Amino acid sequence: MPEATLVNGDRLWDTVIAMAAVGRTPSGGVRRLALSDEDRDARDLLIRWLRDAGCAVRVDDLGNIYGRVAGTDPEAAPVVCGSHLDTVPTGGRFDGALGVLAALETIRALADARVRTRRPLEVVCWTNEEGARFAPAMLASGVVCGQLTLEQAYAARDLDGRTFEDELRR
């Protein structure tokens, strides 16, 4: 049996802390409402890290981010893991982001150990999971799962009357 592949806890911690600096509040929490400037900065940082880890990155029509590492079987369905980077107005450092960053660290650890999986591996970062800015919560993942239409997602409005589509495109 091959030796176990371990994540690099220090690297994961440093990654979490670097992400927590994006939208940091004076109380030590994080505020990254979906599609805000802070959320965009966090998403740009994630894309950079995914590319640095060797992932092919794509962003869909809802702003969901996918970082993919090919497996040895190009026909195999991927193993997908992740979460979101947007927060509630008074979010914590780990909520949502830890799921995305732990998935990224898994990709990094496997690369460090030169492990190639049969199935492709994908890190996903969903847009507007919290629903703190655009209702309903799980808006973009809801479209991907067939629970909402793209039109419903695009028409969602924040309290200032801005639509999800307009904020996505800005």
Q: What keywords describe this structure?
A:
170 residues; four-stranded mixed β-sheet; alpha+beta; Aminopeptidase
Average pLDDT rating: 96
Beta-strand percent range: 5-15%
The secondary structure category is: alpha+beta
The total number of structural domains is 1
Element-by-element helix/strand order = HHEEEHEHHH
Q: Which CATH class is shown?
A: Alpha Beta
Just name the CATH architecture: 3-Layer(aba) Sandwich
Strand order of the largest sheet: 1-2-4-3
Helix content: 25-40%
Distance between the termini: 51 Å
Radius of gyration based on Cα positions: 16 Å
Domain Peptidase M28: 64-131
GO molecular function: hydrolase activity, acting on carbon-nitrogen (but not peptide) bonds, in linear amidines
Keywords: Hydrolase
Protein name: M20/M25/M40 family metallo-hydrolase
